[in-house]
Structures are given as C-alpha cells and as structure tokens.
Design brief:
This protein is an alpha/beta fold. The chain contains 15 helices and 8 strands. It has 2 domains: about 220 residues, TIM Barrel; about 70 residues, Putative flavin oxidoreducatase, domain 2 (Non-ribosomal Peptide Synthetase Peptidyl Carrier Protein, Chain A). Helix 10 packs across helix 11.
Length: about 300
C-alpha cells in the first residue's frame, strides 16, 4: 500500500471507523540514511492512534539500527513487513522474500523484539510458494519470538495478488490451541459483508483491509455497522465528491500539489465505482495537471449525478 496509506488517507480511514492504522512500509536503510521521504512516511496525528509504523528490510543490522529512529516518532507499535511480494522488495530477501529462509526470519524478528521498547507485530504470507513451509508450521515459532500479534495474508509470495486468498490456513493458525497472540486475517476483503463472514468463519481477532479501502474509507464504517447488527448506509455521490475533495486537499497540504495530483489518481476509480457512464470523468481526473482543474472536474461530477 505504498503511496496509498499515507497520513491524509489514514486520517479519513480513522474518521470512518478504522480501529487501528499502519503507515506505508518504510525501508530500514532509508531511515538510517535520514531519507526525507521515509521520515515523512512516519508522521501521524494523535487522532490516528493506535498507529503502527511498518518497517521492512533484509539486513539484520539495518533493521535493528532503525529502531531508535522509529521509536523517536512514538508510535503505538512497530510492524515488521515479512509479506510484500513485489520483486524490488522480495527479490532482495525483504518482505515475503525472507520466507525462503524461515530461520533467518525468526532470528531477525526475535532480535527486533528484544531490542525494541515498543510492542512488535508481524505481517506475513502463507509461504514463499506452494512447496515451501507453510505459516501453519512456523506461526508458533514466530509467536515464540515475542511478537504481540500476527497478521497473515492468505496467499503465497509466488501468487502475488492472483487467484483467491486462502483463509483456511489463517483459520488453522487462529484455532491452534497453542496460539495465544491475536491473529489477524487479510486478503480479498472488499466489502463489510465479506469482513463479517471471514470473522464468523475463521474466528480471527481482527481483519486487515488494504486494497478494499482504496478510494473507499467508508468500508470501515460499514464494517462497524454490520458487526453491531446495524444496516449499512448508502453513500451519496455528493459525499463521495466531498470526501475525495478533502482527500486531495489534505494530500496537497502534506506532499505538495504535483505529488498529490499524481498519487491521488490511484483512488479516483474506487471513489466513484459503479457510477453509470463515469469513464469520461475518470479520464479527466487522471489527466488534469493541477489541483484547480481537478476540483473543477469534481464539481462537474457532483452536478452531473445529482
């Protein structure tokens, strides 16, 4: 969720009911080099608590060294990303690339837990590939490192984001009587109904929503409503436009107009998913070079679908 779960977007997700939020993942090496963009990724507001800062890397020394920097930001916990499958991360042995060497993953995790002054959580995948050791076999060992919670994405590294997430193994970990830390499930939850069904079927302590929240911060409010036996409410086009406008303005204030305009293009399609004959407006949104032009398109959308 790099360049997506930034401070402005987390602010909206929290406003609409997200219980816990986590930063974009941050390279340990970049933090140790005082990279400005990486320090900006660590920023959060008090309103976003509880919030975790997520780190990744393949070098034990770099990961341990960045802990001091991370803890100076005073998050509520530190999250280790052992799950990212993209080539530029996993290909270096970071993210889910480390699932090829489970002993190394366990060793680094244990040392981070011992060095850190804050709770440490882990996000990982089922395995490197279908022929590798599965999370059902190493989840207890991860728990033994002292982590505070474990989140599992229901795909292997090799699957990337193809096929369907397999929640059965997530459920096996959660229902292992020797597991006592919270287990969170992740993968293919794009509606509140799916979140409720996943919790009922697999008994997980919580559900991580990633891609399903892009351009859709309302999903958290919808989950809260369903989990409490209430009906979901319909989100009007007017509300979609106004939240999208706020999102863009916050992104501009946080990152500057040029970067905000470019990164917000990942959200527009989902903000207005399902609107009839929306393609001309979507093309206009991703082509506009300035904030003023984008705001004008948003005004036209609101007027057109009134």
């Amino acid at each position: 969720m790099d360049d997506i779960t930034d401070l402005p977007f987390r602010e909206l997700c929290k406003e609409y009911g997200a219980d816990v939020v986590v930063t974009e993942f941050i390279a340990s090496e970049a933090l140790n080099r005082d990279a400005e963009k990486s320090f900006r990724k660590m920023r959060f507001t008090e309103r976003q608590r509880p919030v975790g800062i997520q780190i990744f890397g393949a070098d034990e020394g770099e990961l341990l060294r960045c802990l001091d920097v991370v803890e100076q930001a005073e998050p509520d916990f530190i999250d280790i990303n052992w799950g990212c499958p993209v080539r530029k991360v996993a290909g270096r042995g970071a993210g889910s690339g480390i699932l090829q060497d489970i002993p190394k993953m366990l060793g680094i995790t244990e040392k981070i837990v011992k060095r850190a002054q804050l709770p440490v959580t882990v996000k990982t995948r089922l395995a490197y590939n279908a022929d590798s050791m599965m999370v059902t076999d190493f989840a207890e060992a991860l728990q033994d490192t002292g982590i505070a919670a474990l989140a599992i994405h229901g795909r292997t590294k090799s699957q990337m984001y193809s096929g369907s997430a397999d929640w059965t193994m997530i459920g096996e970990v959660k229902n292992n009587p020797r597991i006592h830390i919270p287990i969170f499930g992740n993968g293919d939850v794009t509606t509140a109904a799916q979140a409720l069904e996943s919790k009922r079927c697999y008994g997980v302590d919580g559900i991580l929503i990633g891609r399903g929240a892009i351009g859709n911060p309302w999903i958290f409010e919808q989950c809260v409503r369903l989990f409490h036996g209430e009906q979901e409410r319909e989100v009007s086009v007017g509300e979609r436009v106004e939240v999208c406008r706020r999102h863009l303005q916050m992104a501009i204030d946080f990152k500057g107009e040029r970067t905000a305009i470019f990164e917000m293009r990942k959200h527009y399609g989902n903000y207005f998913r399902g609107l009839y004959n929306f393609k001309p407006f979507r093309l206009a949104l991703v082509a506009t070079p300035t904030a003023d032009a984008t705001f004008e398109v948003l005004d036209r959308i609101k007027e057109h679908y009134r």
